[in-house]
Write a structure and sequence with these properties.
201 residues, FAIM1, mainly beta, Lipocalin, elongated, 2 domains, FAIM1_dom_sf, five-stranded antiparallel β-sheet, apoptosis
């Protein structure tokens, strides 16, 4: 290439996940915490062109051009467990639209409220790296940084322990009865014999 004006900004193998003309019709962004991580969902809605584009973690999942019906819904999957997500597009008044996200058929708010009852989440730093550990209480599956962990359950005097490893660190989730019916079972993450505080998502 003779002139600097003609050279591409990015080489083919280094192109960014987003094109430069993208995101001109961005109308909604949601962060959704699932067992395999926090996923960013972005929605473009071109009300003059009829365009609908859904991105999950920067990757285009749905693209529809020239949709004459400006209201409706778009359904797609999120995360390793292929969790069902739906964006509802409703007319509010005139040319104003409302966008709502449903996860597994529930509003995002309801889903997250329910999720806080069915999962425990811990964030910790080991060997200079951040880890996000999630326990799904209904299945006792343990996830770490997006991967389901191999676990071994063990009954102990005051409850159960679910053992797994992160790198060369021994970890287990201890489940003990709170002694109170409303609280139920209390889950604690122990890494290298040290308890890790839980975070609320």
């Amino acid at each position: 290439m003779a002139s600097g004006d003609d050279s591409p900004i990015f080489e083919d193998d280094e192109s960014p996940p987003y094109s430069l003309e993208k995101m001109t019709d961005l109308v909604a962004v949601w962060d959704v915490a699932l067992s395999d991580g926090v996923h960013k969902i972005e929605f473009e809605h071109g009300t003059t062109s009829g365009k609908r584009v859904v991105y999950v973690d920067g990757k285009e999942e749905i693209r529809k051009e020239w949709m004459f019906k400006l209201v409706g819904k778009e359904t797609f999957c999120v995360g390793a467990a292929k969790t069902k997500a739906t964006i509802n597009i409703d007319a509010v008044s005139g040319f104003a639209y409302e966008y709502t996200l449903e996860i597994n058929g529930k509003s995002l708010k309801k889903y997250m409220e329910n999720r806080s009852k069915t999962t425990n989440t811990w964030v910790l730093r080991l060997d200079g790296e951040d880890f996000r550990v999630v326990l799904e209480k209904d299945t006792m599956d343990v996830w770490c940084n997006g991967k389901r962990m191999e676990t071994a359950g063990e009954f102990v005097d005051d409850g159960t322990e679910t053992h797994f490893s992160v790198g060369n660190h021994d970890c287990y989730i201890k489940a003990v009865s709170s002694g109170k019916r409303k609280e139920g079972i209390i889950h604690s993450l122990i890494v290298d014999n040290r308890e890790i505080p839980e975070i609320l998502e």
